[in-house]
Amino acid sequence: MTDTRPNAPLASSFVPGDVEANLYEYWDSKGYFAPNDRTDRDPFVVIMPPPNVTGELHLGHALFVTIEDIMVRYHRMLGDPTLWLPGADHAGIGGQWVVEKEIAKEGLTRHDLGRDAFLERMWQYMDLYRGRIREQMRIFGASCDWSRFTFTMDEGPSRAVRRMFKHLYDKGLIYRGERLISWCPRCNTVLSDLEVVHRDVKGHLWHIAYPIEGSDEQIIVATTRPETMLGDTAVAVHPNDARYQHLIGKHIRLPIMDRLIPIIADDAVDSSFGSGAVKVTPAHDPNDFEMGKRHHLPSITVMTFTGEMNENAGAFQGQKIADARINVVQQLEADGLLIKTENHNHSVGHCERCGTVVEPMISLQWFVRMEELAKPAADLARTGELQFVPDRFKGVYLNWMENIRDWCISRQLWWGHRIPVWYRADGTYIVSEVDLEVDPETGEPVHQDTDVLDTWFSSGQWPFSTLGWPDETDDLKRFYPGSVMETGYEILFLWVARMVFLGIEMMGEKPYHTVYLHGTVRDAEGAKMSKTKGNVLEPTALADEYGSDAVRFALASHGSPGVDMKLSLPLIEASRNFINKLWNASRFALTATDGITIASEPGGPIRPAADLSIADRWILSRIDSVTSDVTRLLETHQYGEAGRQLRDFTWSEFCDWYIELAKVRLRGDGAERQATAQTLHYTLDRILRLLHPYIPFVTEAIWGVFSTGETDLIVSEWPTGGPRDADAEATMDALFEIVTRIRNARSESNVEPGRWIAASIYAPNRTDQLQSLSGEIAALGRIASDQLTFLTAAPVPDKQDAVIAVGDITVILPLAGMVDLDAEKNRLEKELGTAQSEIERIDRQLGNENFVTKAPEKVVNDLRSRREVVAEQVAVLQNRLGELA
Prior knowledge:
β30 (802-806) and β31 (809-813) form a beta hairpin.
């Protein structure tokens, strides 16, 4: 492929569309996305959470692509054999629902097409959107190894699903049984917890009188679902509720159904809710189901799987559930048993896909026994072998693992991995990894289970099925276990936990050592993005307008692990402005040093050492410090904070300060110019490396023109930090404050911006250092170079002079005729107030014994030193105010 990196001088502005697509194709063509062959470093492996093939990717996908790409590009630059394995998920119910809606536009249902024809349509849709998913990820710079792309319905994962099913079945961990599940009457399938969305609904609480058999007494129960009373098999009270002690063991006559049911005592009853007595319907409520098992109650199902009342509902048979609710209430009222009706807001489960109210139902399904699988997975978290970022999710994970229930893995769908079970005519069955047409023992015909497996069953084996399991492949040996699983916190239980316990069971060890959980991307007001609300930001549209780097940087630098993020167009615009700032700084570095030879080695510019100014020493110290901090933050998965530090350093310290300082020295003699140019190139080289994982396109585009190294940026070496130059940093901090205060004083005194003024500086402890920077101070403060003097004795300012205090440094601006004395007093009083407030803040910290004891010694010593500096500043300001008075 043609080398499409920029090789001409940088354009006047960065146009993302001119470089992004070409750069991505260039990286891919060079094979950079595949892991290297190094054996001296451990592999770094991220198995991509496979996006559901149900349409376009959204900002949540853009977020995980960005975070994972930062991880991967960082480790690739460290030299690790880095594998980011991409894939896509068939999405089970979500995929089927989308295609069913498509064929509904043609006036058809899946039943009209038949199973085989419907599955053909499913594959057509999947093939289309799998390609679109790849395209969108490439737009966002996902440097994953596309040669290893895997789909959950590919032959390899499909074979792995059957192997795992048979293993768990043979071990007694998979069984078939009747249990309570969440059922969608519209989709006609059992749902996983993730597919049930609970919404607050304005409803009612009906209070119903249940007559006590053989007595004139009644017991009052309250319910939000009166139609389920037709299937009641008990009334329960708390065993310590004094109101009902005399009734425990007696029977009530169930209204409408005229059936005797017992009054039982159970600790699960909340005595404070309603009357303290509850109806028990084991076939239609999860809590009642468990209570029914404890008390050996019968389960009476009164609904059909299509959302109607069945033969056990008596006179209400055939009615829709919603209609039956109205009619049951009317019957109770007619019988004089409806005591009262209250408005009541409560949470109701709805199908995530179609919005239908979900019904708890008893159904014959396939389940996985979880107790044995969950224990070793929980132990990993307890011992710290499995880390969570942020750590608080360790407790959430353990709480779920310690209270886990058996997992329903069958779904009444056509799309998905068909359950590998074949039934004989007598109802017995065979579990097989290969398709069967006849019983291998008898030769009699068999038929396969019509249900499919829960999507999470196949994606639970994702960390090893993608690497070739059940075959002993080279990839499996080299890249399992992986390193980090990065995904959303909302699927911690549904996916992350299942990968952990299935990895331990099938592979003998955990699938990764760290779980990084990101939050949800919300709109600027914190609301969930919704097409109905019209507040959705489409990631590819944003990339078209602002560039992929700008969207990536906004997502990465404004987020924190495990916390929802508010994203707005101004944030993306700010990121684009930062990228433009970097581009313009790079253009300056190239043009201003044109004709100067930069000393280089194969890796890039050599670190300068000779003829360095204090400003050069300062920026080298700062890039060393930032490099160390960013590396530490990336190692601890603090990607947002690392991005923020890089932005602040690049924008403020490098662009706003150092480049302005460099402009002065680049006008100097040969040695000065050479040292500054070398420092400028070396620092920018480090900045581009550090920023590359965040904004890969613009950094590689600049690197293609700017770099003196022999490699592309994507595979360049990650920089290392060095010791800080404390003296240079202290001197430059003083210079920055001096210049800032001079600018403020000029502005407040209404000195014309273009006017050059005089200044005198008294710096008893830094005269030589600041005097060596006189050209920079003069240029930045617009001080006439022949009117900038350094005093050897404390100055006695004139009443109309402006006085600036920076610690023990005093700056005199003789602004006679330009200074408003009242304005000068106000300025000094404002500065004095700020300084005194800072001293009070420091004193509070130093007076906090807990802080002084626990804070690092360096932090405490820095605070004490800062207090001394500010105290000197207060003294100078108070003295000057006294003179003006």
